[in-house]
C-alpha cells in the first residue's frame, strides 16, 4: 500500500528484457528509497508495485512480469529515464495522498499540456475508456504513482484533466512529459468497491435475496418522508 506522495525521482540504469532468470529486470539508482531497503520489500515505481530482488547502497533491482509490461509504461523506459519512487507505507506514515495499491489499471496518453500561471494543466485520454466511470471531478487519480486531484472530466469525449502546481512539477516525472507520451493510471479503489457492492445488491434483488424491503426503497422512502415533513411544517 502506498500514499501517492512521491519520495524521490530515481534514474534507470538498466532494463534487461531477458535477464538470468529468463524474465525482465529493472535497475534503478536512488538514495532515499534504498536507505532502509530489504529483500522482498514492495516499492512503487511509476505507480507500479514491484518487489526488490537485490540492492546496494545506491541502487536496487526489481523483476517485471509480462502482465505488468502489458498494462503499464515500464516497458518504454530506457537508460537514464527518471521514475517516481515511493516506499510502502508503515505504521508511522502520514497519509498525505490517498490509498494507492500500485496496481496499474491502464495507461493514458497526454493529449494536451496547458500553462496556467505557474501551474500546468494536463489533459489525459485513457487507453481503456472504461476507467472513466471511476474518475470524478475533485476526486483522486494516481498518475505514474503520484496522487493528483482531477480538475475536469468529459466522459463523452473520453478525457480528464489534472493540474500540477509549481512545487509538484519539481517532484514528479510527469511534469517533464510531452504531448503524446504515456502515464500509468490507477483509479481510486474506493469507487471499484462501491460499484461491486451496489452491483451485488441489485443482483440480489433480481434473485429474490433482498428480504421484504430493499435498501433502495428505504432510502427513497426516507427522503420522501423528510420532504413531506418539511412541507407540513411550512
Give me the oligomer status.
Answer: single chain
Largest sheet, strands/sense/barrel: 6 strands, antiparallel, barrel
Structural class: alpha+beta
Overall strand count: 12
Strand content: 35-45%
Give the H and E element order: EEEEEHEEEEEEHEHH
Total helical elements:
4
Helix content: 10-25%
Shape: globular
**N-end to C-end Cα span:** 51 Å
Report the radius of gyration as a whole number of Å: 22 Å
How would you state the average pLDDT, rounded? 88
Low-confidence stretches: none
Order of strands, main sheet, comes to 1-2-5-4-3-6
Short description:
With 234 residues, this protein is α+β, with helices and mostly antiparallel strands. The protein is 20% helix and 35% strand.
Mind explaining what this structure looks like?
It is a single chain. The chain is an alpha+beta fold and 234 residues long. The longest helix is centred in the last third of the chain and has 19 residues, at 215-233. The protein contains four helices and twelve strands; from the N terminus they run E-E-E-E-E-H-E-E-E-E-E-E-H-E-H-H. A six-stranded antiparallel β-barrel has the order 1-2-5-4-3-6. Strands 7-8-11-10-9-12 form a six-stranded antiparallel beta barrel. The chain has helices at 66-71, 166-169, 189-206, 215-233, and strands at 8-16, 24-29, 42-45, 48-55, 59-64, 82-87, 106-116, 119-126, 140-143, 146-154, 159-164, 182-187.
